[in-house]
């Protein structure tokens, strides 16, 4: 886990250095957006099931509409997920995106000591405070 964390930290540091940003038009971002919509819709209407079971007819009607919306969103997500492997296959490897060879990435990770990681964390927290 520590090695994975260091790799991810190096990838994030390098991505920040290269001013890389997320592409909002990327298909994986659409999946993320839909997941957020499902989560928000489910959380905001979770009380309806209790009210519906207690015999509240208007709550029951609203619950059915919400469930229909959830079903549509999940269907859209299922379609997005089926396209995801092809999308991921088109993403260039991490080494290409960071403009570093795998050997360079590994040597940078191997040369960094624990105190360097602590310094980076303290610098990051100082930058967040500014």
UniProtKB/TrEMBL annotation:
Residues 119-130 have a biased composition (Low complexity). InterPro entries: CHD_C2. It holds the Pfam family CHDCT2. Residues 109-130 are annotated as: Disordered. Residues 1-84 form the CHD C-terminal domain. It comes from the Eukaryota. This is Chromodomain-helicase-DNA-binding protein 4. It comes from Lates japonicus (Japanese lates).
């Amino acid at each position: 886990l520590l090695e994975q964390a260091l790799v991810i930290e190096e990838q994030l540091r390098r991505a920040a250095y290269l001013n890389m940003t997320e592409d909002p038009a990327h298909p994986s971002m659409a999946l993320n957006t839909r997941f957020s919509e499902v989560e928000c819709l489910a959380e905001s209407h979770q009380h309806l099931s209790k009210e519906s079971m207690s015999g509240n007819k208007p709550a029951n009607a609203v619950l059915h509409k919400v469930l229909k919306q959830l079903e549509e969103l999940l269907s859209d997500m299922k379609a997005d997920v089926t396209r995801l492997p092809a999308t991921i296959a088109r993403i260039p490897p991490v080494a290409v995106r960071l403009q570093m060879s795998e050997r360079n990435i590994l040597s940078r990770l191997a040369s960094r000591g624990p105190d360097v990681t602590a310094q980076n964390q303290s610098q990051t927290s100082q930058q967040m405070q500014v």
